[in-house]
Design brief:
heterotrimer; A alpha/beta (377); B mainly alpha (326); C mainly alpha (343); B: 326 residues; mainly alpha; MetI-like fold; 2 domains; globular; C: 343 residues; 14 helices; 66% helix; cell membrane (chain A); transport (chain A); nucleotide-binding (chain A); membrane (chain A)
């Protein structure tokens, strides 16, 4: 089983090497850096802290997978980074630095409305999870692709914009005469392709995909994922791919970040997460999905349910469900650290006390020995 | 096309139902007030007119109910609604024909203004939630709870009796002869302003509240977020995406609540003694002029049905999903 | 309004089709801060509470009004057309009758007709709406058309021609006429909701278990329609009150029976406007508006209870402004409060 490219033998061999070189240097050339992003739900005195100081870096040309159970905050992260989070969402701190092609960095959270509008779709585009509801039901899809183009390029005529829209549809494998269709005349898979075409209209550098395949059947899921991978290789944008389906991510992503209870608990190359998950939650998550390829594994559920975000204590939020939990886990919330296991990728990060003996000692506990299966395989 | 045929079928059924209700009401009512009235007008009423009234009110007990029903339809389809007692011997149809332009002018224009302005304000309030605009809500709630005619009483007290800005009653200066002169038309506008304003003010809050709620619901649809993500201008997102979709249920509710609104605004004519359908309905009720009452009910129903057809047509134009091509 | 967050988060997650990972407890985690049973949420809604309090006040007046009225509402006196004073709080009529007493005594008529019509119309609406939604097919088509016909036919003129031809029109008769013409709106909404409930898993499960149709409707469907039935009832009461007052105002109905509409009828016919006797018609109108508003507020409460999207996120507009928060779609507000915490 090779996982160099999601397009196994689909005529993408020359592109695979490109993908590999990107993966080895994930954050050398960042296009999007999310730093200490905090988000609350609720404007009252007692809001729920749904994201707590989340940091994440997306390299240029990289496909970054974001995984976790429902309610862990992965979609919130994407919406907050683009400031599209609906009320009563509230960004309470952090930075979202976008680096454009000439290397200029801007903090998206400090832009005013006009600047933010100009940046949207041009720099970063989003494909939402609900293909059914993402398109305006009363306009033809051609018009909906064209209005995005014309909002950013006022000099473009409607005719030119529609021609561009036709090319974009062609790119995602939809006949250009569909420009005249209304959303209700398209199937779910076609609508999602239209959304992808629309997102690519202005050649954005970052494409955020929030569960783009969840509402589709398995065959359609596969086609869309392959199409995204192929377009990425062709057009060179970066992708943040959000899903709860980790095995899908192993196929498409270069790097995977696992989220739990509003925090990132593991951030590592896709293959490393797959073969040697460092966080007990990553491991559990992997074992709760059947792998798309390769030998069958035993499926094991994760005991318990995600914690109530409004009632988090001081300790590790996963401790209650963790089979490796020890005394210190109830006292310290582990930070994202580099375990630096000899021979391992030095950039992989994990938030687990088993990998952070100094934090355990700081609360006066004796760290347990690193289990042999985690040291190095 | 199927959508329109279905709707058309529905209106035919509704018309049939209205006529049938009209047919049965006098027949199931206890007592025979019309017989008494015919007897009172004995000699003054022509035989033709008398037989029409007998058919309309079911006085011919010797014929079968079915025969009465057929005869009734025959009269209705020929536009014969009987003879008015109050305006004897004018046929009901003529009385109504004289009144209806005034009602369509006043109620029609005022309702369209109210719907348009209310929908616009509602879009704004629904879009800018959590701002000062929210404070308009309690005010419109109050106005939606007030009966139309009471507002008319207040308006007359303030603007006619106290300030003397507008006449308190009538539809034009009685010293003028109705012609297409500027003098006459300006008099009509002058007399119509206060009733029209009162109708607008009392009915607008319903449209504001309805549109506001639809905007709030539609605003959380994904396509509005997508529109914002695309970096479209605020105007385009508001009018092209949010309001453009929120107006669809607003148009359907316009069609459905038309009957209610027309009912309420007709009472305004009574308060302002405005010589439209509502005013004649009031005089008919006061004088127990049953033929006129029944005729007016039928005409109002037909007018409302017609407005519904127009609203349906507008809806079909606005929503592509109703025009499935196959 | 602490419930907001949990509902938003839940709504978001529920929309995702169930492909959730095979975790121990599948995603159905209860919202973060839902303390107490769901029913109590309604009573925590400030709009609903305000509405209930006002309604309770009028209900009380309806019961005790005739006893606490200082004068006989029909009794004439020599104080003709007096403006409000200590003797006559709302002034007097052209016959020297006490307007305040007329309003107090008249409350009962308004409330009785409103509630009788509301109960009758809701009953018809529930029977027709639920039947149509549950049986489906031709029965549904027929009943829906019937409801729509009654919706489109202008109700007030219909009520007028029916009531106008009755030889004697007491309050209860008016209530019955209003109910017969005003049930359609509730039926329409109930039908739509029943239709969607019928396809839900728990109803399908009950049917698969072989439970009787009657049991499914009473035990599974009706409890889930409570909010809609309640809102339909409240709406019909408001409609009935307005209709009754309008009928009385144009002189249909028993003029010997006092209600707020008859007060307005006399004021209008005795030229209260031209005589500048504002006290004659202003109190009755304000009472109608207040009662109508209380019913509307209760319905707002029910709507917000059913549809969390309508809930005001505004909380306290002033405190939001102070923090620089403007809740809107597409531009999440950014406040730098967390940073200061760390500093």
């Amino acid at each position: 089983m090779t996982l160099t490219s999601p397009l196994d033998g689909a005529g993408a061999a020359p592109l695979a090497s490109d993908g590999r070189s990107q993966r080895l240097t994930p954050s050398a050339d960042p296009v999007l850096e999310i730093k200490n992003l905090s988000v609350d739900y609720g404007y009252d005195d007692d809001p729920v802290h749904v994201l707590r100081q989340v940091s994440l870096t997306l390299g240029r040309g990289e496909v970054l997978g974001l995984a976790g159970e429902s309610g862990c905050g992965k979609s919130t992260l994407a919406y907050a980074a683009t400031r599209l989070l609906p009320p009563p969402g509230l960004i309470t701190g952090g930075e979202v630095l976008f680096t454009d092609r000439s290397g200029v960095k801007t903090d998206l959270l400090r832009l005013n409305d006009t600047q933010l509008r100009a940046s949207r779709w041009q720099d970063m585009a989003i494909v939402f999870q609900g293909a059914m509801n993402s398109l305006n039901p009363v306009y033809r899809i051609g018009r909906q692709i064209a209005d995005g183009i014309r909002a950013h390029e006022p000099k473009t005529t409607q005719k030119e914009a529609l021609e561009r829209a036709a090319e974009l549809l062609d790119l995602v494998g939809i006949a250009p005469d569909r420009l005249k269709s209304y959303p209700h005349q398209l199937s779910g898979g076609m609508r999602q392709r239209v959304m992808i075409a629309m997102a690519l209209a202005l050649d954005p550098q970052v494409l955020i995909m929030d569960e783009p395949t969840t509402a589709l059947d398995v065959v359609m899921q596969r086609q869309i994922v392959e199409q995204i991978a192929e377009l990425r290789d062709r057009l060179g944008f970066s992708v943040i791919f959000i899903t709860h389906d980790v095995s899908l991510l192993i196929e498409i992503a270069d790097r995977i970040a696992i989220m739990y209870a509003g925090e990132i608990v593991e951030d590592a190359a896709a293959l490393d997460v797959y073969h040697r998950p460092r966080h007990p939650y990553s491991s559990a998550l992997l074992h709760s999905f059947p792998p798309l390829r390769g030998p069958r594994r035993e499926l094991i559920g994760i005991p318990g349910s995600p914690p109530d975000l409004s009632k988090l204590g001081h300790g590790c939020p996963f401790a209650d469900r963790c089979e490796f939990a020890f005394d210190a886990c109830a006292k310290v919330n582990p930070q994202l650290v580099f375990p630096n296991v000899p021979g391992d990728d030095p950039r992989r990060a994990v938030a687990c006390l088993r990998h952070d003996p100094s934090a355990v000692r700081a609360v006066g506990e004796e760290p347990p020995p690193v289990p042999p299966e985690l040291s190095l395989t | 096309m199927r959508f329109f045929l279905r709707r058309l079928g529905f209106y035919v059924i509704t018309f049939w139902a209205a006529v049938t209700i009209n047919f049965f009401i006098p027949r199931i009512m206890p007592g025979d007030p019309v017989r008494a009235l015919i007897a009172k007008n004995q000699g003054r009423i022509s035989t033709d007119a008398e037989s029409a009234l007998r058919t309309l009110f079911g006085l011919d007990k010797d014929t079968t109910l079915w025969q009465q029903y057929v005869d009734y339809w025959n009269l209705i389809l020929h536009g014969d609604l009987g003879t008015s007692f109050t305006y004897f011997p004018t046929p009901v149809a003529d009385v109504i024909a004289g009144a209806i332009p005034w009602t369509i002018g006043l109620v029609g224009i005022a309702t369209i203004i109210s719907f348009t302005v209310g929908t616009l304000i509602g879009s704004g309030i629904g879009w800018r939630r959590g701002t000062w605009a929210d404070s308009l809500l309690p005010i419109s709630t109050f106005f939606s709870a007030v009966p139309y005619f009471w507002l008319a009483l207040i308006a007359i007290t303030i603007f006619s009796v106290t300030l003397g800005w507008f006449p308190a009653s009538g539809s034009y200066d009685r010293s003028l002869v109705p012609t297409f002169s500027w003098e006459f038309i300006s008099s009509v506008i002058y007399y119509g302003t206060l009733p029209a304003l009162t109708i607008v003010i009392s009915s607008i809050s319903g449209w504001i509240l309805g549109m506001r709620n639809m905007m709030v619901t539609v605003s959380s649809e994904d396509y509005v977020t997508v529109a914002q993500a695309k970096g479209l201008s605020e105007r385009t997102v508001l009018f092209g995406y949010a309001a453009r979709n929120a107006i669809l249920p607003q148009v359907s509710s316009f069609a459905l609540s038309l009957g209610f609104i027309v009912g309420g605004t007709l009472i305004m004519e009574i308060v302002f003694s405005y010589q439209g359908i509502g005013y004649y309905l009031f005089t008919a009720v006061a004088a127990k002029d049953y033929p006129l009452m029944q005729g007016i009910f039928l005409v109002i129903t037909v007018a409302v049905l017609f407005a519904n057809i127009v609203a349906d047509f507008v809806y079909g134009v606005l929503d592509p999903r109703t025009r499935q091509e196959g | 309004m602490t419930i907001d967050t949990s509902i938003v988060e839940e709504g978001r997650e529920l929309e995702k089709p169930s492909q959730a990972p095979m975790t121990g407890a599948v995603a159905a985690a209860p919202g973060p801060r839902r303390s107490g049973p769901r029913k109590l949420l309604f009573l925590r809604n400030s709009k609903a509470i305000t509405g209930m309090v006002i309604l309770a006040f009028f209900l009380l007046i309806a019961v005790i009004g005739p006893w606490i009225a200082p004068y006989d509402p029909s009794a004439r006196s020599s104080d003709i057309l007096q403006p409000p004073s200590w003797e006559h709080w709302f002034g007097t009529t052209h016959l020297g009758q006490d307007v305040f007493s007329q309003i107090l005594v008249g409350t009962r008529g308004v409330i009785v007709v409103g509630f009788v019509a509301g109960i009758l119309a809701t009953g018809i609406g529930v029977i027709i709406g639920v039947t149509a939604g549950y049986v489906g097919g031709l029965g549904d088509e027929t009943l829906s058309v019937l409801a729509n016909v009654f919706l489109v036919i202008p109700q007030l003129p219909l009520i007028i021609i029916i009531a106008g031809q009755l030889p004697s029109v007491g309050g209860v008769t008016v209530a019955v006429v209003i109910a017969i013409t005003g049930w359609a709106w509730g039926a329409r909404v109930l039908r739509a909701q029943t239709l969607s409930l019928r396809k839900r898993d728990f109803v399908e499960a009950a049917r698969a278990n072989g439970e009787s149709t009657w049991r499914i409707i009473t035990a599974e469907i009706l409890p889930n329609l409570t909010a809609i039935i309640a809102s339909g009832f409240v709406g019909t009461v408001a409609f009935a009150v307005l209709s009754l007052i309008t009928l009385s105002f144009i002189g249909i109905g028993d003029t010997g029976e006092w209600n707020w509409g008859t007060v307005l009828y006399q004021a209008q016919s005795q030229l209260a406007l031209q005589r500048g006797a504002w006290w004659w018609f202003v109190p009755a109108g304000l009472c109608i508006a207040l009662l109508g508003m209380s019913l509307t507020l209760i319905n707002f409460g029910i709507d917000e209870f059913v549809n969390p999207r309508l809930r005001s996120t505004g909380l306290n507009a002033r405190s939001l402004r102070k923090r620089g928060i403007r809740p809107r779609i597409g531009f999440t507000p950014v406040v730098r409060e967390a940073k200061e915490d760390r500093a």
